[in-house]
Amino acid sequence: MKLFRLKYLVCALLAGSLVVGIVATNVMAKDKAKLEAKAKVSKADAEKTALEKVPGGKIKDAELEEEDGVLIWSFDIAVEGSKDLKEVEVDAITGKVISDKIETKEDEEKESAKEKEDDDDKDEKE
Question: Which of 34, 89, 92, 94 is most buried by its number of CB atoms within 10 A?
């Protein structure tokens, strides 16, 4: 009887986690769609602009985000012969490069941790 209850509890927890995941995915998709609707510069055009700053580079990650009230396309670009990435940010309204910097593995880890913390804070407020 106890084994049955344990299996039931595990299944209920898994089902609950699945529901939370689906809801979170839908919220993120709606947020992404809102940002894309605001952008005047397409991802493809912003990619071209970013790659002009890193000849021969390959885009590893791309993201549309709002930072300090500015809508930007952010690209992590692999640089041939280097372990570091070049982060190029393109204004999603004007199409101009607003930031162009080297991002080390340590920088990337710090940014990931901060984004996770910001997401957790956002979830608590909702």
Answer: 92
